[in-house]
C-alpha cells in the first residue's frame, strides 16, 4: 500500500505572515486567521503528524484479516490531506497569481475533509468510498468508449477499452466487490450524510467562484489590497479544512493501531 512517506519527510510548519492592515475586514479577520494557521501548523510541531504516519506503518505491516482495504483507504486519505495542505502552504508563500490556486487547494481540502469525516463515521461508509474508486475508473473507461464510438475510432482501440473494463470488473470481484454498476457517492451527498451539507454547499460555491475563470474573475478589476484579503481567507479556510480532515482520520488510525 502506498504510504504517505513523502508527507512524513516534509516539514509542514506554516510560516506566519501578518495580514496587511488595510481595512476593518482585515482587522476583524486577523485573530481568527492566526488561530486557524496555528492549529494547522501545530499538527506537525506537536508530533501528531509523525504519530499518524507511524500508525499507518504499523497497520500496513499487520492490517489484520479483512482489514487491508481499510488501511489502504485511510493511508491514502492521509497522504492526500498532507499533500494538499503542503501545496496550499506553498501557494500562499508564492509571489504571483495565487488567488485561484489557493481557492482550488482550499476546495480540495474541503472535499477531503468531507470524505475523512464520512469514512470515519462508519466502516460501511469507508467501504463505499473504497469501492467507488473502481466505479470512477469504470466511468472513465465508459467515457472514452463513448467518445471513441462518436468519433469512429478503430475497433481495435475500442476493444482495448472493453478488455480493460472486463479486467477491472474481475479485479473488483476478487476484492470482494460484487458489482461496479450504479452511481458513485457524490461528495455533496456525503456532506449531507455527516450533517454539514449546507456548510459544504456554501463553501464549495464560494471557492469555485475563484478557482475557475468565471465571468467575475475575467471582468473584475485587479485590486491588490482586496486580493491580499482573499488570499488570507482562502489560506485560513484551507487550514481549517485540513485540521478537520486530520482530526477525523487521526482518531481512527490511532485507535486501530492501539488494538
What is the topology?
Layout: H1 5-9, H2 24-45, H3 48-61, H4 68-93, H5 99-121, H6 123-150, H7 155-174, H8 187-193, H9 197-211, H10 215-219, H11 224-257
What does this structure look like?
The protein has one domain (5-10, 33-257). 77% of the residues lie in helices and 0% in strands. It is built from eleven helices and no strands. It has helices at residues 5-9, 24-45, 48-61, 68-93, 99-121, 123-150, 155-174, 187-193, 197-211, 215-219, 224-257. The radius of gyration is 21 Å and the shape is globular.
- Indicate the mean pLDDT: 87
Largest sheet: none
Sheet-strand content, in percent, reads under 5%
Helical percent range?
A: over 70%
Tell me the radius of gyration: 21 Å
Total number of helices: 11
Please report the distance between the alpha carbons of the first and last residues: 20 Å
Overall number of domains: 1
Name some characteristics of this structure.
single chain; 0% strand; mainly alpha; disordered N terminus; 11 helices
Task: Please summarize what this structure is.
This protein has 259 residues and is an all-alpha fold. The protein is built from eleven helices and no strands.
Amino acid at each position: 500500500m502506498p504510504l504517505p512517506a513523502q508527507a512524513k519527510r516534509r516539514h509542514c510548519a506554516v510560516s506566519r505572515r501578518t495580514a496587511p492592515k488595510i481595512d476593518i475586514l482585515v482587522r476583524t479577520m486577523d485573530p481568527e486567521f492566526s488561530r486557524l494557521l496555528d492549529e494547522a501548523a501545530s499538527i506537525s510541531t506537536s508530533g501528531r503528524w509523525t504519530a499518524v504516519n507511524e500508525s499507518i506503518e504499523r497497520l500496513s505491516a499487520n492490517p489484520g484479516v479483512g482489514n487491508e482495504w481499510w488501511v489502504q483507504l485511510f493511508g491514502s486519505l492521509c497522504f492526500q490531506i498532507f499533500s494538499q495542505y503542503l501545496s496550499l502552504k506553498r501557494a500562499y508563500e508564492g509571489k504571483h497569481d495565487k488567488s485561484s490556486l489557493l481557492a482550488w487547494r482550499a476546495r480540495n481540502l474541503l472535499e477531503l475533509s468531507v470524505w475523512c469525516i464520512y469514512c470515519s463515521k462508519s466502516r460501511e461508509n469507508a467501504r463505499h468510498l473504497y469501492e467507488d474508486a473502481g466505479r470512477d475508473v469504470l466511468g472513465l473507461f465508459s467515457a472514452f468508449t463513448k467518445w471513441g464510438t462518436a468519433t469512429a475510432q478503430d475497433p481495435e482501440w475500442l476493444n482495448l477499452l472493453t478488455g480493460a473494463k472486463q479486467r477491472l470488473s474481475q479485479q473488483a470481484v476478487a476484492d470482494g466487490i460484487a458489482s461496479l454498476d450504479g452511481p458513485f457517492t457524490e461528495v455533496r451527498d456525503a456532506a449531507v450524510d455527516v450533517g454539514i451539507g449546507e456548510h459544504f454547499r456554501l463553501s464549495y460555491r464560494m471557492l469555485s467562484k475563484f478557482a475557475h475563470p468565471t465571468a467575475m474573475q475575467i471582468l473584475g478589476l485587479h485590486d491588490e489590497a482586496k486580493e491580499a484579503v482573499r488570499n488570507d481567507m482562502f489560506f485560513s479556510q484551507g487550514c481549517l479544512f485540513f485540521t478537520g480532515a486530520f482530526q477525523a482520520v487521526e482518531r481512527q488510525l490511532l485507535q486501530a493501531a492501539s488494538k
